[in-house]
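I have been asked to look over a protein record a colleague put together. Alongside the sequence sits a line of tokens, each denoting a local backbone shape. I have pasted the whole thing underneath without changing anything:
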Amino acid sequence: MRRTHRFASAGTLAILVLCLGCDTGSRHDDVDGTAASGVTGPTGPGGGTAGSIRLSRLAPAQGSPQGGTSVTLEGTGFQGALIASVHFFDPSSEVPGSANEANGVRVLSDTELTCETPAHAAGVVDVRVVLQNGAFATLNNAFTFDPNAPGGGVPARVADFGDPTPWAVELLELANRARRDPAAEGRRLGVDLSPGAGYAPRPPLSHNGFLAAAAAKHTGDMIGQNFYGHWDLAGVGPTGRILDSTFDLHASYGTDRASNRTENIGVGSGNQFSSPQAVHDAFIVDAGTNPPKHRDSLLGKSAASRDAREIGMGVRFGETANPTPPTQTNVGVAGTPLAFSPNHWVTQEIARTKRDRALISGVVYNDDGDGICEAFPPYRGNSGGEGRGGVTVTLTHSSGFTLQTQTSSAGFYAFETFVDGDFTITIEGAQTTVRVAGDNVKVDHVNGQIRTY
């Protein structure tokens, strides 16, 4: 169902210029009532004694149930203490013992020691340091064994890919096709996207649910409050929205809540902007925008988007703005009141996390032959698309580690990797092995066959 590109004469298109330049830990104040404070024990090797210890903090505060997370305990009195063991245990069902004992305990200084977590069932646990004379200090509810925790000795986790709409998936597919071969995309649209113009192939983007929430909020605000712009009526910009979504935004984007280094927006009426293909084409052509910032952000040419790995979209077709919006109190800072009546709205947020790790993502769908997972008109409600939801996708690392997820309602899935190397993706009996070497990888399942990019 690939529609031929065209711009109809009816309708108005408005695209605002993209405005570029747009420690975890568990703290506890005290210790268990039976803490090792003021306890003296026998002299040990090197002359150490079981003196007073106190625990104040553990970081990181989460890790994989498979164990192997390197953690640092902070407190006082470690240098002279005779530490026998460190335990991660659930006091409601366990006692400290060999089954929940940490590995590799090392005293770094009087205020720090490190160890590696043991394997443990998912859940919140206490952390206890035991001295040779049996005295101990405890941090209550200090660590969470989380199957989706980053790192922790595991090579990957299920990514925060959310539940993108079919039309958001189609927009992502179109963007990734253009990123894979910008020159071909340019020939289709009559735009120079050759290497000579600065457009090189870029790795695929993955969908992120937190970025999508930030984008959807802004699209909803523009419709509900009848304005158009990167800043809402309180003056909050894209960075502020993304931070509010709890997306773990990379430090390179800064923390200025009014800044924008991540966002494309557009509105249109009539036949303009009325489908995912029309939205994509408008952003890539970027007519009247110099430099073409929407295009450059999607294709990874701009400085802000060059290293981006994920995208989230708020896309709403066939909706008109609130005719009686709230009073605009921030004119000149917030969005511009609309002089026409658009009924198609798009916000895109494109960014990377602080971890900045490669993602393996893709779409499971039944293709009609054009190589794109399309949405079906009218692009709202339950109109659906070619994507297949609820399909099990299995990731296997070369170490034998295995992880599974199910595709979203529109057929999307994603894993975040923590190490480079070989990963095998298996979908309904079809499988392929891909090598992660820093960049995102795309593995689709199309009409029963695996396709990689």
